[in-house]
Amino acid sequence: MTAREVLAFELLILSCALTFAACSQKEPPEQAGTTVEYEPGEAGRSGPPPPTLSAQRAAEKAAEPVTLLVLEDRRCTDLKCQTGPVIAKLEQTFDDLRVVRHDWSSEECKRIFESEKLERLPAFLFDASAKGSKGHAKIRRYLATTGSGRMQRLRYPTDFDPRAEICDNGRDDTGDGKVDCADPYCKGKPVCRPDQPRRLEVFTMSQCPFGTRALDSMEEVLDAFERKIDFRVHFIASEKDGEFKSLHGQDEVDENIRELCAIEHYPKGYRYMKYIWCRNRKIKDKNWKACTGANGIRAETIEKCASGEQGKRLLAEDLKLAQSLGVKASPTWLANNRYLFHGIAPEAIKQELCKHNKGLEGCEKRLSSESPVPANAVCK
Asked: pLDDT tens for residues 250-305?
């Protein structure tokens, strides 16, 4: 697992980062729970020097409450718009945090948003009261100056623009007379794509440990639906001037291509998944041919495809979908061609598919809900 592999939903990344910052600042065991106070020197022995004026000011500063301004929008239902977990973590990081929340529906929220030259919500803003506090020192590397230069904002991964049309709330949010998917802003958004019942697609990286676990779960999911769903596998990488790059390096690019070749040549009954499931057991093993032969997949067919122009064309074409949807995290799922979600355990995947396919045969079955990795872990 590389240093860039992170847990799902970048909200949790930030939470973990703050936790790490707090833990890294703990006192050594021998000092924990002790305080150092000024003591007058005794005869024949000099005591520690009295606190300096700067130290006194620092102590006074540390005792002052720190103000956190939270700008949010209750219209946004995405996980990244849920501010509670981040506020809770910041309250653990600062000794005395005063939280002031403003919703986008208020004029004050809009005023601060514009004056600080922000682009996205939610926003977590600190004024001058934070500087010099212990909490500020712990999270300083996660802060950036706002556009006005007056405040500092938490570097929070969100892409929600409160000024834009919300594409699935049945309202005209921008006042242009166009509602939801009729608004030009919503063109190409997942929720505005044509509904394709029973379709389940996954975006992955062949060497992502969370992606391989998710694909392994599909054995149970496919069996539950008697392989009567439209399941598709896509990959996440980038291409420039005919050269491909992937998070885990060239070996991952090569395996992405081989798996696409298996998909291309052995689609019937999802035979290609036998190759993928076999590879997932030892995904870093260069002997990929060990996963061919007995399962009906010919090594010669895969090699000819992967080493030639066909393999490159397959990957170049396949990457377009993830790029058009803005999908960058492995694994990410797409149900019915419209609904993006994350998940690894078979039951979690099944539930999301069934949520958008009422009455689908197989949804009544209970699948495995345990996962050896965090439920929403991703590589990104």
From this structure: 999 999 999 999 999 999 999 999 999 999 999 999 999 999 999 999 999 999 99
Query: pTM here?
Result: 0.72
C-alpha to C-alpha distance for 346 and 361, rounded to whole angstroms? 16
Compute the residue count for the chain: 380
Strand pairing class (143-145; 123-126): unpaired
* Bridge partners, residue 240, by sequence: 243
CA 282/CA 277 separation, integer angstroms: 10
Are 142 and 259 contained in the same domain?
no
The CATH number covering residue 126 comes to: 3.40.30
Q: Which of 163, 179, 208 is the last residue of a domain?
A: 163
Alpha-carbon distances, residue 157 vs 76, 170, 211, 332 (angstroms):
14, 26, 21, 17
3-state secondary structure of 263: helix
**Full residue range of the structural domain in which residue 309 is found:** 199-379
Q: Report the alpha-carbon angle 234-238-243, nearest 5.
A: 115
Whether residues 223 and 317 share a domain: the answer is yes
CA dist., res. 373 & res. 345, Å (int): 9
pLDDT tier, 159 (very low <50, low <70, confident <90, very high otherwise): confident
Structure tokens at 355: 């949520």
DSSP state of 330: B
Cα–Cα distance for residue pair 82/103, rounded to 1 Å: 12
- Calculate ∠ Cα 266-326-352, nearest 5°: 65
Give me the chain's average pLDDT, please. 86
* CA torsion angle 271 274 279 281 (round to 10): 160
